[in-house]
Amino acid sequence: MRVRLLICTIIVVLAAINQANAVMTMEQIQKTAMTMRNTCVTKSHADAGAVAAIQKGVFPDNNQTLKCYTLCIMKAMRTFKNGRIDDGMMIKQLDLMMPADMAGPLKATATKCAGEPPAGDDCETTYQFVKCSYQTDPDHFFFP
């Protein structure tokens, strides 16, 4: 039920943004990210501290719940389907939501990292994408 509410909220926010023809403020982005984070921490049973550590570039290789947290986020954002990163949807969302000074670098990183082959396990694939994104451009890295 929470996931449905989250997805509906994201769709409403994206529709409002599209109608206003403007990007979200960083405050709005952070609030939306926290809603997604809370939902996916609960759903994946990931440790909130480990999730927060992603923002600092901490990517432990032996934390399966953290890996599945990244899958939950990317599915909620509709940027992962059929076992692959959907970089087209990701770029579309970045254009709609992010300020231009962040959207450009994030799109370049998304394109690069989405080009990596899938890892065979969906949780591992999304985790490696997020890890690649951080390693490629830590100054512009953002992941809920």
Describe this structure in words.
This protein has 144 residues and is an all-alpha fold. The chain has one domain: Pheromone/general odorant binding protein domain (Recoverin, domain 1). The protein is 69% helix and 3% strand. The protein has helices at residues 2-20, 26-44, 48-54, 64-76, 87-97, 100-114, 122-136; strands at residues 80-81, 84-85. Strands 1-2 form a two-stranded antiparallel ribbon. A hairpin with a 2-residue loop joins strand 1 and strand 2. Helix 2 packs across helix 4 (64-76) and helix 5 runs antiparallel to helix 6 (100-114). It is globular and about 35 Å long. The two termini are 20 Å apart. Residues 3-21 have low confidence and may be disordered. It is found in: Secreted. Belongs to the PBP/GOBP family. GO terms for molecular function: dibutyl phthalate binding; odorant binding. This is General odorant-binding protein 72-like.
Shape: globular
Task: Please tally the helical runs, counting DSSP H or I stretches of 4 or more residues.
Answer: 7
In CATH's first tier, which class applies?
Mainly Alpha
Question: What is the percentage of strand-forming residues?
Answer: under 5%
- Helical percent range? 55-70%
> How are the strands of the largest sheet arranged?
1-2
**CATH superfamily annotation:** Pheromone/general odorant binding protein domain
Number of strands: 2
What low-confidence regions span 5 or more consecutive residues with pLDDT below 50?
Answer: 3-21
Instruction: Tell me the major beta sheet.
Output: 2 strands, antiparallel
Mean pLDDT: 85
Question: Whole-number radius of gyration?
Answer: 14 Å
Whole-number tally of structural domains: 1
Question: Can you name the CATH architecture?
Answer: Orthogonal Bundle
